[in-house]
Model the fold of this input.
Amino acid sequence: MSWCTIESDPGVFTELIQEMQVKGVQVEELYSLDLESLSYLCPVYGLIFLFKWQPGERDNRPVLKDYDSSLFFASQVINNACATQAILSILMNRPEIDIGSELSMLKEFTRGFPPELKGLAINNSEAIRAAHNSFARPEPFVADEQKLADKDDDVYHFISYLPVNGVLYELDGLKLGPISLGECGSGSDSMEWLKLVQPVIQERIDKYSKSEIRFNLMAVIKNRKDIYDADLEELERRRAHLWEQLGLAQSKNEDRMDVDITSIEHLRNLIADVESEIAKVSEKIALEDEKFKKWKTENIRRKHNYIPFLFNFLRILAEKKQLKALIEKARQKT
Done:
């Protein structure tokens, strides 16, 4: 069974990751490479860059033949699977991500495999292929064999950037091995690798923007709602503690006349500050809920088969003798 092409969209990629039983991860589209925007999304597990593949384009940068054995690098042996493979390159190389049982078994099974066999293992994974093909667009006719791109077709490719054990790598399944972009610090939440990757991606954008505007950049990050839920829980604990302190201070004030009134006012001000922070975090959670709801609706529409409706609509137009006139009208406009 072939692999379908899927749309480069954060909602699509996030649901695809969820379909592979990965928890606590989402994808966001980046519109800027400035560090302030990137820091807001931290922790950033990796970046995915989409660009138009140019046949015959040469890249003289050396690829690594001997590299860190813990680095998961797979050759792309499947047409149309580069998006999923770019995602897997990040998921399989960040141990802090809960990748679920299916990917964990695949990672363990392919440990020590050369890149070509890892690529074949991905191809043979029914779970990964089913998750990927869940975004297949319904077609009225299904070819027995997958059509290969010819010289006139636009072909797009995905590559990944991420840090592994203090080294920044570019992982491209069409290359013979990973490309090292330099040391970037060992902290999993470090901004160093983002500072290092910034000019590399900007150079690519500048290169392609001269002749091609269709490229984009996405970040694989920790689920924002999970972060905000943890923040909200901590703020609510802090608020409860402050209310408890205020209650004790007020009870002492009733028994003794020498209790410092300013301390009570200070506690009330602290509670007001916490209440304000709770409102801000609650608003962020609501925005995330709305975004995921929108993504879900869009993905349902992407997957829905509208073809029977269109066939029946055309049939009814033909029965009412309206179809031929509409076709002629459309031809005149073209």
